[in-house]
Amino acid sequence: MSVQALRETAAQPNEAVEVLPMAIHCGAEIRGVDLSRPMPPEHVKTVRDALLRWKVVFFHNQTLDHRKHIAAARQFGETTAGHVVYGSDGEFPQIYSVAKDRKANRYQGQVLFRPWSGWHTDITAAINPPAASMLRGDVVPPYGGDTQFTNLVAAYNALSPVMQKFVDGLRGTHRFAPPPGVAETPEYRELMRKRTLVSEHPIVRVHPETGERALFVSPSFLKSIVGMSARESQVLLEFLWEHVVRSEFTVRFRWSPGCVAFWDNRSTAHLAPRDIFDSEFDRQFYRVTLVGDVPVGVDGKPSTSLEGQPIVAV
User: Fold this and answer.
1) Burial call 27-41: b when 16+ CB within 10 Å, e when fewer
2) What architecture is domain 3-307?
3) Given 90, 121, 219, 275, which is the most exposed site by the fewest CB atoms within 10 A?
4) Catalytic: 69?
């Protein structure tokens, strides 16, 4: 199939919207959309359909400020606070600042890095994790600072039928906590005390719009598998985490000024860059998230909240 055949055109005269896949399983570039102004319904549908198909979509040459960023996201759902744990911008509470040094004062000590370290699905410790996130690059380094995404549906589909049947019935406990072996700073400990989030989610989530099954196994937040011994849980989780970040399920996005990434948080995990800390380049991005629903497993059983409140619209 040619690239031309993969392009989707919205029914809007003289305003073609092109969806150009970037990898086999994950990621597509969308051209012909201006996020700084309201989109016609046909364009919104094309973007939404592409998001569901490719899990993350990217836009170039966008001119957004905080107000326009929030308005663009609201065309696809209700917005949340910038971050339900770490807070948000005072004037624009829907905006979360993703700065180069934002993690500098959270933890003390060295993290044990593994292939899945840093990969996460946003805020899965909540009973209703965000449905989607829209991230824009404001100050973008000339090179370095790429973001990676993985397709959790493709990862599930690549498991053997025996393993699929096994994990279909499992549930896991998600919580906010520092990486293993790393101490919390006093400030972080106080923040966690005030805004504790702990939830039990199915290991395999059924996507509410597509019906697809996804491995809902955020490495940064999923701490244990319910009903298993500590060793059993560790071994299975490490297998699943290593599996979901296999390169064939992923796409790597190189940012440039004016770029926007919009991902389906129900079927992806992503990795923020670490290489940027080895440079003198600044990097300032901003994120808006959309209210999500309560995950449901293959057995039809929804997630349960163990501590904390649901994420609400702002």
Assistant:
1) bbbbebbbbeeebee
2) 4-Layer Sandwich (3.60)
3) 90
4) no
